[in-house]
Amino acid sequence: MLELGRAAYDAVLDHARADAPREACGALLGYCEDDRVLVEAVRRVPNVADAPRLTYELDPETTLSVFDEAEATGREVVGFYHSHPAGPAQMSDTDREEASWPGYVYVLASLAARPALLDAWTWTGERFEREAVVLRED
């Protein structure tokens, strides 16, 4: 289960809207507790993909600095997010082919959905397994 505060939820959707029609991407900071992934902060990471309207690639240097920040603040990077500005509210074939962080949560912001929404999956190394998303008030 993924738990997001209202500020984190809104930050992901705001980033998705700001970067449209390109896919937005970033990292989620927080901690894991039993079967829950708790997100406390969102960090935007530039999308350096060759075709950013169709896919995303996290900027390696910025991603490394987010891991450093997490360590320095006693948190961990618990997952990543990206957007589908006009695409489906599900992981694409490309998302499955490019997934490279087993055990991490992948959040998808779908702007095509009305209203826009966030869904989450955990990458097992072989497939995405859907996670429940719980929104908590900060």
Automatic annotation (TrEMBL):
GO terms for molecular function: metalloexopeptidase activity; zinc ion binding. GO terms for biological process: proteolysis. It comes from the Archaea. The keyword Cell inner membrane does not apply. Gene3D superfamilies: Cytidine Deaminase, domain 2 (3.40.140.10). It is an enzyme of class 3 (hydrolase). Residues 2-138 form the MPN domain. This is Metalloprotease JAMM1, desampylating. It comes from Halobacterium hubeiense. The gene is jamm1.
